[in-house]
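Retry 2 of 3 after timeout on previous attempt. Resubmitting structure tokens to design endpoint.
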């Protein structure tokens, strides 16, 4: 009996009709394995994963494979996005056993969950041989199998060891991290490393703040070049906006077509901040289009943002997005079709598969004559309309707390810079979904779908990203409830996730017990739980004037500081917060009767130093500590600027405010 039909996860629902007797992750599944005295297959993936679909079609939809699994195993299907704790534990085991990881992740374990064999994607023939070999070994060599499992658990326990060396996250360490990124920078194509090439959003955020502190022209050029290369490449959807997960090559041409919420949220911040600091028109356009993609393509009817768009369309990767020159002419006519082929680098040979091309922007369109820009907009709109008639990729519409938190922070940053009321309202609405649906009895839940909250408990990244988002909405709206909610989440995190030695586990002390308790401080596709939490702690401390939260953040950063200078590419979000702490961060209160368009407020937001918090409103507004005991001077708008809890004299002109902001 397949037990996935009632799941909230779109990934699990994709497997609900398999001939495999799937179980969701549960104590009952392991109890059943113990009762039957059979090993467990743990298959981990996510809805937008291309190779997960391939393995499903080849193996899990095959009745013969289903019989083999049903007769000899208890099979458990896990959505890594719902259960990042389960994924983290078994990914560590997979990497320890094979030297690499990825999805689909295929784990064979004893009935107590101890893994004894790990891998990723297996073609059908290899998978069948594996299952047959494990069945034989479980029957005839049980003791050796269990010994191997015990060795794996011991190894991954060491990998998750806590309490290592600590050091303050100093300017020297952050300078060393920036230098390392400069050495690893691809000066030809932008970004870091080779194929596959991922958008380095967290490192770019760090570098932008590093540039603000140091004025390093080299650092800014790395960000500008990388941002432009990605925006002009095939990894960026030239018709609808939004970035794909990664490029399969080293020059951003052919993407792996899935689009993830977290990537686009973090990249929205990058392009918004690049525009804010430089006035770059390309960055302005990409920020606007990415914000639009988040709201238009990932918005859900029940509120909140969906997790991802699939890489495949009806089983074919990229089918929605690729074009030939003839298809452009058919859609646009001869003149515009040939013009578009030249502009988007669509050739008869093709850049993708079967003579098709992924659209790239071969020429600049942000600083061109108005008539050229108008033609580009017209052609782009016509191609989008034609593409919309094609089959579309599936959407994973579950709402993940952490990723929606990242999106809220990004949308707030964009809205405060542009004054866009629609984006501001959307950010507040998404925050409302997190507050009203995902907080249950004072604790965060990880996911919801169709307006119904799921059972998986929030992990550390959820608490950090959502608390940081609430701090951002507090600054946007001047409403005290958001700051209160942020503080409540942070207090839960401090009470239930702390290691006792300055760091943090990724799961709560009262969460489900796994074979190890994960605690990974390094950033991966998203900020680590520790990085997300310290960002929220620093913002909350600056907004409330409560230094103990800053002290916790500094101690937590000290646990990862030794890694920052050696492995900068995996500590970008922590380094970003480190730059905020070096800056102060600044605490700016604009006391005004116009908390939307006051010139002091607009100047503060545009020229804010790294990590600064900015709040505007009437004096002594309830729930807004930065406005307490700060009157209007001479009945006019007044700016109060503090840095690390030490304040300058209040000022009333933009010129004086900018002088204080440095």
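Retry 2 succeeded. Sequence:
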């Amino acid at each position: 009996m397949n037990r996935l039909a009632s799941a909230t996860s779109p990934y699990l629902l994709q497997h609900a009709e398999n001939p495999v007797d799937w179980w969701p992750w549960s104590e009952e599944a392991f109890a059943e394995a113990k009762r039957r005295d059979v090993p467990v297959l743990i298959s981990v993936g996510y809805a937008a994963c291309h190779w997960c679909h391939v393995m499903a079609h080849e193996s899990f939809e095959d009745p013969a494979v289903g019989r083999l699994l049903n007769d000899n195993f208890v099979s458990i299907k896990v959505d890594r996005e719902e259960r990042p704790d389960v994924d983290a534990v078994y990914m560590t085991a997979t990497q320890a056993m094979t030297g690499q990881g990825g999805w689909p992740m295929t784990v064979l374990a004893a009935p107590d969950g101890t893994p004894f064999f790990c891998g990723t994607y297996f073609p059908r023939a290899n998978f069948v041989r594996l299952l047959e070999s494990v069945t034989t070994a479980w029957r005839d060599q049980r003791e050796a199998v269990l010994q191997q499992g015990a060795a794996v658990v011991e190894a991954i326990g060491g990998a998750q060891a806590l309490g290592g060396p600590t050091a303050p996250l100093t300017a020297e360490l952050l300078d060393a991290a920036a230098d390392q990124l400069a050495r690893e920078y691809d000066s030809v194509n932008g970004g870091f490393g080779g194929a596959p090439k991922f958008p380095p959003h967290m490192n770019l955020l760090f570098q932008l703040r590093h540039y603000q502190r140091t004025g390093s022209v080299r650092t800014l050029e790395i960000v500008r070049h990388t941002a432009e290369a990605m925006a002009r490449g095939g990894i960026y959807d030239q018709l609808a906006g939004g970035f794909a997960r990664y490029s399969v090559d080293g020059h951003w041409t052919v993407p792996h077509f899935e689009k993830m919420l977290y990537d686009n949220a973090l990249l929205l911040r990058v392009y918004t901040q690049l525009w804010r600091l430089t006035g770059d028109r390309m960055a302005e356009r990409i920020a606007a289009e990415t914000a639009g993609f988040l709201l238009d393509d990932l918005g859900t009817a029940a509120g909140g943002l969906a997790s991802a768009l699939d890489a495949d369309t009806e089983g074919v990767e990229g089918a929605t997005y690729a074009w030939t020159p003839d298809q452009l002419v058919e859609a646009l006519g001869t003149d515009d079709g040939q013009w578009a082929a030249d502009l988007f680098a669509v050739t008869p040979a093709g850049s993708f598969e079967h003579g098709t091309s992924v659209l790239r922007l071969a020429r600049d369109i942000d600083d061109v004559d108005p008539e050229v820009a108008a033609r580009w907009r017209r052609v782009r709109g016509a191609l989008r309309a034609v593409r919309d008639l094609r089959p579309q990729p599936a959407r994973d519409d579950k709402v993940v707390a952490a990723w929606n938190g990242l999106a809220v922070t990004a949308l707030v940053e964009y809205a405060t810079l542009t004054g866009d009321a629609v984006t501001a309202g959307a950010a507040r609405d998404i925050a409302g979904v997190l507050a009203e649906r995902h907080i249950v009895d004072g604790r965060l839940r990880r996911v919801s779908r169709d307006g119904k909250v799921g059972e998986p408990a929030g992990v550390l990244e959820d608490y950090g990203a959502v608390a940081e988002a609430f701090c951002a909405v507090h600054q946007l709206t001047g409403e005290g409830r958001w700051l209160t909610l942020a503080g409540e989440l942070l207090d839960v995190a401090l009470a239930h996730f702390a290691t006792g030695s300055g760091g943090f586990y990724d799961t709560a002390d009262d969460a489900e017990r796994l074979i190890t308790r994960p605690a990974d401080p390094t950033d991966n596709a998203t900020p680590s739980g520790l990085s997300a939490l310290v960002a929220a702690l620093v913002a909350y401390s600056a907004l409330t004037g409560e230094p103990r939260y800053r002290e916790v953040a500094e101690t937590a950063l000290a646990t990862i500081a030794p890694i920052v200078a050696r492995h900068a590419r995996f500590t970008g979000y922590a380094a970003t917060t480190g730059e905020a702490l070096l800056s102060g961060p600044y605490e700016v209160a604009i006391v005004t009767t116009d908390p939307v368009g006051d010139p002091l407020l607009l100047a503060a937001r545009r020229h804010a130093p790294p990590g600064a918090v900015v709040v505007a409103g009437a004096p002594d507004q309830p729930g807004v500590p930065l406005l307490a005991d700060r009157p209007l001077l001479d009945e006019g708008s007044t700016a109060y600027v503090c840095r690390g809890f030490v304040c300058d004299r209040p000022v009333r002109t933009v010129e004086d405010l900018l002088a204080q902001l440095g």
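Attempt log closed. The chain is about 50% helix and 10% strand.
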